[in-house]
Amino acid sequence: MDTFEAIASRRSIRKFKSDPLPDEILQKILLAATQAPSGKNRQPWRFIVVQGEKRAEMLNIMRQGIAHAKEQRGESGSSEWSAYVMEQAPVTVFVFNPDGIHPWLAHSIDQNFDDLVNVQSVGAAIQNMLLAAQALGVGSLWICDVFYAYEELLHWLGESCQMVAAVSLGYADEKPDARSRKPVSEVTRWI
Hints:
191 residues, alpha+beta, NADH Oxidase, 4 strands
């Protein structure tokens, strides 16, 4: 599959088969992530792979965090649906920016700039994961709803650095249609 085909055919998968992902496939996806461009070649990404029996613990922690978020803020976005999707996926990869500052902490202007550059770099790594998964016949879902259980998941994962997102991976059990996209002419200004 060429790059343009992978980009055009990639979909956010929310229904996964229970079949496990072979380690060599997962290694290829993670290798693709590490080959992403990064500001000043910092390579500001770290990954924690959750699979097998640890998935049940992960989901329990995620759901505890969601319940806490609902108590504190009165809402939890689409996080309960995301937890359901994560429950189906045989693999979830948590993605971190080890140089990042947690969102609730004060940032200097220089720290804000560094964080922006690093999070863009991490986003490129995530996109590489999604495209590699697509090229390998693996479904994927980029998940930001982990923020509703941010502190709980950090503690459970034994991390103290900035969590950026999670990516669930597995063989797709659905074939969603392409979602509409704004035309290039609507989002581009030529000078």
